[in-house]
Write a structure and sequence with these properties.
The protein is mostly helical. It is 86% helix and 0% strand.
Length: 264
């Protein structure tokens, strides 16, 4: 009887903590939208964060996208060869990359690289009381640290997604060209014959949502870091794990919505 009461008490406490965390996250997101449309806008810091998030991620995005295009082409060729349909390879690769792979790969890379960096940076500032010092000096730390990074991530990730898609298609082209001597014009003409504006639009929407998710999760975990330096590592780790989880959930939801639009 006593153990039952203890378990019930622990469960109730955990449930209360969960809903308290959800409410705290809701207030954080609501505050972001409130502050985002209120001056000052710190355009210089937004540009600086776009450089940090975007330009510094280009080499990794380019390498990953190029390898993805080559590997996916190599893996798809044997299956199509069995049916004598290797001519459909450009279309298959284009559909896979434009609809799913480019935006998803970019988001996962940015979640690991950018999300952890934002979580660790803001977490370090939080535990060393730099954020409190900014409040004392009449600077709105939420607007300067959180809003600028979330906006930069929301703007930059879709651009990186387009770049990743282009590089992945170039990797696929080099693989196809090395075996079948297909011209660049013919490859892209066949590849984009089955691509619609809905495919490109849904990919951009996904990348935008992914960018916002990475930015808001990274800043939320870092801005609310506790327990000293140990909390900094925990904030960075939780930012990556939660961002990746939400990215997969959003991928499923947006793909389903795009399919509904496509079929209706």
């Amino acid at each position: 009887m006593k153990n039952s009461r203890q378990h019930k008490k622990v469960f109730t406490k955990a449930l209360d903590a969960y809903f308290a965390g959800v409410y705290k996250a809701y207030k954080f997101v609501a505050r972001f939208f409130k502050e985002a449309f209120r001056p000052p806008f710190h355009v210089g810091e937004i540009i600086n964060q776009c450089y940090v998030i975007g330009v510094k991620s280009l080499p990794l995005i380019a390498l990953t996208g190029f390898i993805t295009g080559i590997v996916f082409t190599k893996q798809s060729r044997p299956s199509l060869s069995e049916f004598g349909a290797t001519s459909w390879l450009p279309s298959l690769i284009s559909i896979a990359i434009v609809r799913a792979l480019a935006s998803l790969i970019t988001a996962l890379i940015c979640a690991g690289k950018v999300g952890s960096s934002i979580g660790a940076e803001l977490g370090s500032m939080k535990v060393t009381e730099q954020i409190d010092a900014m409040e004392v000096s009449a600077i709105n730390p939420f607007k300067y640290l959180v809003v600028t990074r979330v906006i930069a991530a929301t703007i930059t990730v879709p651009v990186l997604g387009l770049f990743c898609g282009f590089v992945a298609l170039m990797g696929s082209y080099f693989n196809v060209h090395s075996i079948e001597a297909v011209s660049l014009v013919s490859f892209f003409k066949n590849g984009f014959a089955t691509i619609t504006f809905l495919d490109v639009g849904s990919a951009l929407v996904k990348s935008t949502v992914f960018g916002f998710t990475i930015g808001i999760i990274g800043t939320y975990k870092g801005y609310n870091a506790v327990k000293g330096t140990r909390g900094v590592g925990q904030a960075a780790n939780e930012a990556v794990v939660l961002a990746m989880f939400l990215i997969f959930v959003e991928e499923i939801v947006i793909v389903q919505m795009a399919n509904w639009i496509r079929y209706f």
